Amino acid sequence: MMKKFLLTLLVVGASFGAFAQFEGSKQIFESPKLNAEKAKHKVVAILPFATKISYKKMPKNFNAEANRDQEKTMSKSIQSSMYTFLLRKASDYTVEFQDVDRTNILLKKAGIADKLEETTKDEIAKILGVDAVLGGSFETEQTKSEAGAIASAVLFGGFGGKTGTGTLTLTLNNGSTGDLLWRFFKTMNDSITTSTDDLVEHMMRKVSRNFPYSK
Question: What SS3 state is found at 135?
Fold first, then answer.
């Protein structure tokens, strides 16, 4: 009986530990200018996210070019997931969000689609014709093979195996000056069940009360 109790306690403790690991830590910054500036905003653009995928132990037959392609795909995928989330809850916000297809076409026409880190936020906002730009970055370090992750998911009853750690940063810059108005930073653990939609959904649930444009 005691052994069964201790085993149950161990499983519950492990589950809480796993959940706490997934939650990670978060930090929020708000500029003193935020309230005054956001009141002037009507249209906000969502930029492709700067994405980096690295490995704790380099996989066999690693292909640097394929890894870069995966980073680019994830960059646009997070951007699209963010737009979908905000569009779905449009009535909850005080601004409109520019269609990401329009955003990406305008960035490409201006020749800066691959040079966002070399361009100031006010220059980007002018090109896009918006009042502010919402962007950010996602960095992940893969620590476990997909096969190992699937085995862990089965072991934990579908909880999802941890395959890596990630840091997700969301930033809001004023369009007229380029000033940083707001920043949200969160660390989280990734799993085989986590899509970019899941990542964004989880992050926005945590930031909802502090999101600058929430009514």
Answer: strand
Q: Rounded to whole angstroms, how far apart are CA atoms 174 and 25?
A: 26
- Record the tokens describing residue 64, joined without a space: 């640097």
**Contact criterion met (CB below 8 Å) for 145 and 88:** no
DSSP symbol at 1: -
The answer to whether the predicted template modeling score (pTM) of the entire model surpasses 0.85 is no
Q: Which two tokens stand for residue 52?
A: 């980096």
H helix intervals, the chain = 2-23, 34-38, 64-88, 100-109, 121-128, 146-155, 196-207
Whether residue 212 contacts residue 41, with contact meaning beta carbons closer than 8 Å, is answered with: no
Read off φ and ψ for residue 178, nearest 5 degrees: 85, 0
* Residue 209 pLDDT grade (very low, low, confident, very high; cuts 50, 70, 90): confident
Q: How confident is the model at residue 10 (pLDDT cuts 50, 70, 90)?
A: very low
Instruction: With H, G, I as helix, E, B as strand and everything else as coil, classify residue 65.
Output: helix
Give the per-residue pLDDT at 194. Answer: 57
What amino acid is encoded at 197 in this protein? D
Give the whole-angstrom CA distance, residue 79 versus residue 86.
Answer: 11
For domain 25-210, give the CATH number.
3.40.50.10610
**Residue corresponding to tokens 């840091």:** 167
Strands 132-142 and 180-191: unpaired
Q: Decide: 170 and 156 in contact? Cβ < 8 Å.
A: no
The span from the CA of 174 to the CA of 179, in Å, is 5
Q: Are strands 43-46 and 132-142 parallel, antiparallel or unpaired?
A: parallel
